[in-house]
Amino acid sequence: MFRKLQIDQDDLQKGLIVISIIVTVSAIFLPIIIIYILQDVFYFSRDYWFRTTPTSAYVIFIGGMLMIPVASVLYMIIKYVMDKKNMTIRIGWIFVIISLAVIPMSALGVMNYYYLDDNGVHYNHTLQTSETSYLWEEIIQIQPYSDEDNNQYFSHFTLTTQDGRQVDMPASHEFLQYRQIVFQIVEDHGGEVLDRIEES
Fold first, then answer.
1. Distance between CA atoms of 112 and 123, rounded to whole angstroms?
2. 34-47: per-residue pLDDT in tens?
3. N or C terminus: which one in the chain shows less Cβ crowding within 10 Å?
4. Looking at the whole model, is its pTM more than 0.85?
5. Domain 131-198 -> CATH class
6. How far is CA 143 from the centre of its chain?
C-alpha cells in the first residue's frame, strides 16, 4: 500500500516564502532576458527594419510572475485562519490555480511586440494573439506628440488609417532612427505628417 505523503507545514511555508522572494526579485530583470530570447527565437526575420517590445509586454510578464508570491501569501493567510478555527479543508488547489496564471500571462507578454518592414507597421497588441497590420498606403496621417515636462521631444506617434483605425507608436530609439523614412513613405502615399503637439 502507498503511504500518504506527509508535508510539514512549517517547511512548506518556509519554502513558499523563499520561492516568493526569489520570484519577486527575479521579476525585476528576468522578463527582459526571457522576452528578448523568446521573441528572437519565434519572431525573428531579416525582412524587418526593426522589431521592438512595448513596455506593456514587460508589465504583463511581470504580472504573471508575481502571481506566484500572491498565491503564496493567500495560501498562508487562508491556512492561518483555518488553523485558528480548527478547519481541515484542502486549500492547496488555490495556490495551484493562481500560480497557473503565470503561463498565459507570460505568453501574452512574449506575444506583445511590433515591427516595421517594407509593407507597413505590424503590431501584436496587448492581450491579442495575432498581428494587426497597418500598411503604408493605408496610413493617411501621422501625429507626433512631445512631453517636454519629461524632456521628451518626441514621446509617441499616432498613426491613422483610411478606415479610421489608429495605432499609438512609442517613440522608441528604433522608431526614431526610422522616423524620417516613415514620414517620407507616408507622404509619398498621399498621407500627411502633422505638426508636433506638446502634451502637458
1. 8
2. 999 999 999 989 99
3. N
4. no
5. mainly beta
6. 24
